Amino acid sequence: MSDYEIVDSSFTAIVNAPLDKIDIPKWCFTLRESEYQGCSPAHIAAGFTAAPDGKRMSINVETIGGSLMVQHYVETLGEKDHLILESVSDVFTPTGRTTIHVLWELSVKAIDDQKCEFTNHVRSRATDEMRTFLDRQGIPFDVFRAQRQPMSIAHNKGETPLFAASIERAALKN
């Protein structure tokens, strides 16, 4: 773990669909808000747009550990079976607003010709802005990380099987 890494969390779930029917970027960038909300009670809103450089962007709004997050996920790798998104996300806490860097990686690999394993891998690290924000409040980074990790990990663990089910539904429609 790097000095300013907050969490590195990865969970898997089964997708009962053949690999050739799955298209994670298509799923992500056409995900209806109601479908996103159904993947976690913490999910508030979702949409998609383009970043200033024209890359696809998924906008997600959720709460984790009592903090509202607005995530601006820009596609850095978009293959049918592997999607990497990167965001400098806004975090609204009871003591103010800051940012966090999040890397979200979704992938599937075939188990057999009718089933795949989905992996939901989330890594976050403090931005310079967040470190300054914590310093101004006298919160040691290690203390913040220790408090944030269990909530972030629990969130990822809970949403992973629901994302897998949503990807499965999308794949079976194709």
TrEMBL record:
<protein>
    <recommendedName>
        <fullName>Polyketide cyclase/dehydrase</fullName>
    </recommendedName>
</protein>
